[in-house]
Amino acid sequence: MKKLHYIDGNDVRLLHSGGEYFSVLLAAIAQAQHEICLETYIFASDVTATRVRDALIAAAQRGVVVRVVIDWLGSGRDQALQLTALLVAAGVECRCFNPWFRRGWARTHRKICVIDRQRAFLGGFNIISDDISDDGWADTLPFPRWDFAVAISGPLVTHIHLEADAQWRRTGRLDLLSRIGLMRDLRTDAKVSRSQLRHLSRAALVVRDNLRNRATIQKAYLHALGNAHHSAVLVTPYFAPGRKFRRALISAASRGVNVTLLIGVNQFVLQDAVAHSYYPKLLSKGVRIVEYRKTQLHAKVAVIDHEWATVGSSNFDALSLFVNHEANIVIRDKHFNQRLTTELQQGIDDGVEVLLEDYVSRAWYRRAWYGTVYLLYRGLMRIVTLGSYG
C-alpha cells in the first residue's frame, strides 16, 4: 500500500475511560478562544452530554466559532433535530450528517474535536456518559465503558482540522463543482504539509470515506500485520472483517507472531453470532481470542510489535471498513505504545479466553446458528458495500 505519511513533533496523550476523556475535553473547550470543531456519531441527552452541550454554548456566547456535526442516525432522529435546534438558537453552528440516508448508506462514525487549531481529540468516545449503554436501551453498565482516545498537540493537528473542516463543508449545500474543489484542496494541503517535513515521523492521521480513502484504514492494518514480527494485540467491540483481514491475522500467526484478539461481546446477539462463526478457523490457526465481558467494550485500538499502535473510531466490521466515515491515529512512539500495551494487557486479564476445544464442543445447532447468521450478514454487507466485503 501507499506509505502512511508520519509527522514528527507531536505530543500524543492516551486517554482511558470517559472520566479522564471528558474532564480533559471540557477543560479544553472552556479554554477555547477562536474555534471549536466537533464531530460525533452519538450526541446523547444524559448528564455528560449536557455538560458538553452547555460548554459548547458557553464558548459560542463568548465569541468562539463553534461548529458541530452529529450523525442523524447515531444520535437518533428526534434527539438530532432537538439538539440541532437548541444549539443553533444558542449561537452554535450545528449540522446533521446524512439525514434520511439522502446520500447513501454512509454514516459519520468519527469522534473528533479540534480546538483553536492547536489541540485535537480523536478516538472512540461518543458524547455520552460512560456508565450508560450506547445501544439505545440506556441500561446502566456494571463498570464504565472501556474505551480510549488521544489528545494531540503539534503539526498533525493541522491535518485533523483539515478533515474536520472538510466534513463540515460536506454536510452543507455543496454543488458538484464545489465538492470537486474540496477534494482538490484536501490533496493540495496534504502535499504542502508533507513537503515541509524533513525529519523522522511519529504519528499519522488515517481516515476512511467513500471518495479518496475507501480502504485506507484496512490497508494500514494489513500492512502492519504483514510486517509484524513478534506480537499483535487488536481490540474491537464488533468483529466481522472480510477475508483479507482474517487472512492477515492467520498469516501473522502462522509466522510465529503472537496474535491476540480482544473482542467485546454480549451487546448485540446477531453481532456475537457473526463473530463466533470465525472462531474455529482463527483458533485452529493459532490466533488467540479473548472475550471482554466485564462491561461494554467500545475501544478500537491495536499495538503491533510495540512499534506501531492505532487509536480511533474504526471497528473491525464491514460498516467501519467499507461504508462509514472513520478516523484513526497511527502512533510510532515506544513510550506511548508501552502505556497502551499495559492498558490492553489489563483488558485481556479481565477477559475470558476462548479455547478451541471448548468451542467445538458446543451444541451443533448453536454452531449452525452462527454459520447461518454469518451467511445472512455477508449477503447483506455485499449489497451495502457494493461487493467490497467478502
UniProtKB/TrEMBL annotation:
SMART domains: PLDc (SM00155). SUPFAM superfamilies: Phospholipase D/nuclease. It is an enzyme of class 2 (transferase). Its EC number is 2.7.8.-. It comes from the Bacteria. The keyword Cell membrane applies. Keywords: Cell membrane, Lipid biosynthesis, Lipid metabolism, Membrane, Phospholipid biosynthesis, Phospholipid metabolism, Transferase. One of its GO terms (molecular function) is transferase activity. The active site is at H109, K111, D116, H298, K300, D305. Gene3D superfamilies: Endonuclease Chain A. It is a peripheral membrane protein. It is found in: Cell membrane. Residues 104-131, 293-320 form the PLD phosphodiesterase domain. InterPro entries: Cardiolipin_synth_ClsB, PLD-like_dom, PLipase_D/transphosphatidylase. It catalyses: 2 a 1,2-diacyl-sn-glycero-3-phospho-(1'-sn-glycerol) = a cardiolipin + glycerol. Belongs to the phospholipase D family. Cardiolipin synthase subfamily. ClsB sub-subfamily. NCBIfam families: PRK11263.1. Catalyzes the phosphatidyl group transfer from one phosphatidylglycerol molecule to another to form cardiolipin (CL) (diphosphatidylglycerol) and glycerol. PANTHER family: CARDIOLIPIN SYNTHASE, PHOSPHOLIPASE D. This is Cardiolipin synthase B. The gene is clsB.
